[in-house]
Amino acid sequence: MKRINIIKKMWRNLSGIACHSLRTVRHSSLIGICVVLLCSCSDYLDVVPDNVVQYEDLFVSQKMAYNALAKVYSYLPSQGRDNTQYTMGDEWIITSPDIDAERTWVQGAAIMRGEQAASDPLIDIWSGKKYSSAWWALPSLWAGIRHCDLFIENVHLIPDMTAEDKADWIAQAKYMKAYYLFLLMQQYGPIILPKTASPDAPDEDLFLPRNTIDECFTYIVNLIDEAIPDLKERAGINELGQVDKVSAKSMKVRILLYRASPFYNGNSEYYSNFLNAEGQPFFSQTEDKEKWKDVIAAADEALASCAQNGLRLYEYRGQPYAYDTTDFRLNTEKMQKLYDLRMLLVDTWNEEIIWGVVADEGSVSTMHSAAVIKKPDGYGGPGASNSGSGWMAGSYQSMERFYTEHGLPFEDDNTVIQSTLLDIVTTPDENNPAYTAMRGFMQPGVQTIRMYLNREPRFYANLGITGGYYRAHQVRINTMMYADSPGGYYAPLHGTWAPKTGIMVQKIVHPESIYGAGASSLVLYAWPYIRVADLYLMKAEALNEYYGPSQDVYDALNMVRARAGIPKIEDAYTGEFVRDEARNKHFDRDHLRDIILRERGIEFAYESAMRYWDMLRTKRAISEFSVPAWGWNYLGTTASTFFDLQIVQSRKWSITDCLWPIHVKEVSANATLVQNPGW
């Protein structure tokens, strides 16, 4: 009977959710419902570990119920598996073959090449998908939402738990439900808001239509607001990764930012004909500027909460690695900045991470090992030579996006002669006084390209480039990136999985991880879902949109720029290094918007497809992602043959790709479920 009771509860919460077998069981007896749901939708509904305990048995004690709370979080999409979003956008270039018969490999990159399909959607968090190996399993977030509801219903059963702690757990589940709904909105646009219904309800109550975008945002924000008062101020040391007041307030800012952004706020250009059954547009057709004001208020509240709880922009406070000791001593200020930026993500649970999750070994060995360059012969250290994969490369576009040392794009910096950026140059010798400022950033006396010199510190902290350094495998590698050179393509080991752009990413790689030596040698760190820098940049964007350029905008933007080691925005655009045609560009709302979005693109480069979502919500994705990806000739063995810019991969992107297709089986099962345009 316990199993039947759980099915009753599941049924009350299943109304309108995509499950293709529901239509066949609507008029069945309760026992029949149990049988069909358990057999045909086990991948969708099963929230109880098989052959362990019944769900209600998890609530006999707080210790047991913690397993149910952990299950609430278990639906969070991985940040490092191949069937996740991290390779979406224009930052990563994945070599072929990168997708197999089961469509499991590097699905984000496949989406960018136009390989999405309604008959078999990639990264399908609506229906979820099982593969031959559980390694690739992708859960339906609707199942996660249902588990949140079940958890909330049963928390009251725990006998040895205070009312305050029960309220906190319920609030966590409410927040996670809201967050899962938001993730669905990101991919699919308008979704179905959860409602209750009985098994004998008519079709119109069981098979619900999609709600409008504004209705979805209102529901999600209200649910977070409902959760915040009962959450702990800050999760304790033994609760890292659990939601608290600070993280809920901060994620609310992001959700409100999306609500205010052009894609969701008055998008008549794309979706004037995307209508519900009543003929009403799913997307609001007129912009509501007041939505930006809500972002500002939420950002101020979240930043105040961060400050009260010791959260701030990260600074590295440890000792430099032994291989950097001399350079750190001789170039202290710049090397400190380099370490601030190099260790920003990988110094686990640091003061900038508002909410995050420690990546499992599978994620680290998938994404991080794919990004790390192969350890060259002769570097010593504990790991074997040629460990690591090195088939996930950075794009030329993402490399070019970083600022000069003056905090300006190439086109705005009067010290840059763009026609000479591809010139091959040689760095100063180690004894040359001109080399002092390059210590720890560039190697002495090596050939490189002018474009790689005099860039901002984030450029050198994030990337592996010709003539630079790559800190990984517990050693510092003098990268040249040419074929058969450190960091570059080596045919016997790379094969077809080549670093095809000659530009590698070290931002996500922990310097102390030993790749290829097993899970115990990988340093796992907390991957941030949101960090303090995001709050400052969201506030700057909202202030500019609502009020226009002001010192308040500059101050928020400058918090991130100062940590990055570049001049204040007002100094950069009024100083001696700015071109006359770009002078005072920051006084114009449209130009300042571009500056803020570029700052976001640099600060969050190679992080969880942040740039992808920024381009989508600002309606720039079509122009940004429909151009080919570029890179150097990775087969070149000298500077003259390597620095040959060429198309590495074609890209295909259109309005249709802005919203994911809902699987055809879901649309077939629910006649009220309108498919996204173009699919």
Separation, N- and C-terminal Cα atoms: 43 Å
How much of the sequence lies in strands comes to: 5-15%
Q: Tell me, what's the shape?
A: globular
Quick check: average pLDDT?
89
Helix content class? 25-40%
Unreliable sequence segments: 1-52
Q: Report the strand count.
A: 12
User: How many DSSP helices?
Assistant: 27
Description:
With 679 residues, the protein is mostly helical. Strands 1-3 form a two-stranded antiparallel sheet. Strands 2-10 form a two-stranded antiparallel ribbon. The chain has a two-stranded antiparallel ribbon with strand order 4-5. Strand 7 (469-472) and strand 8 form a beta hairpin. The protein has 27 helices and twelve strands.
Write a concise keyword list for the protein shown above.
mainly alpha; 27 helices; 12 strands
How would you summarize this macromolecular structure in one to three sentences?
With 679 residues, the chain is mainly α. It contains 27 helices and 12 strands.
Secondary structure blueprint with pairings:
Layout: H1 2-13, H2 22-25, H3 30-40, H4 42-45, H5 62-73, E1 92-94, H6 107-112, H7 141-154, H8 163-188, H9 203-206, H10 213-227, H11 245-260, H12 268-271, H13 290-308, H14 325-330, H15 332-342, E2 353-358, H16 361-371, E3 392-394, H17 396-401, E4 424-426, E5 447-449, H18 457-462, E6 463-464, E7 469-472, E8 475-478, H19 491-494, E9 504-505, E10 526-531, H20 532-547, H21 551-564, H22 569-572, H23 589-603, H24 610-617, H25 621-625, E11 629-631, H26 639-642, E12 646-649, H27 664-669
Antiparallel strand pairs: 1-3, 2-10, 4-5, 6-9, 7-8, 11-12
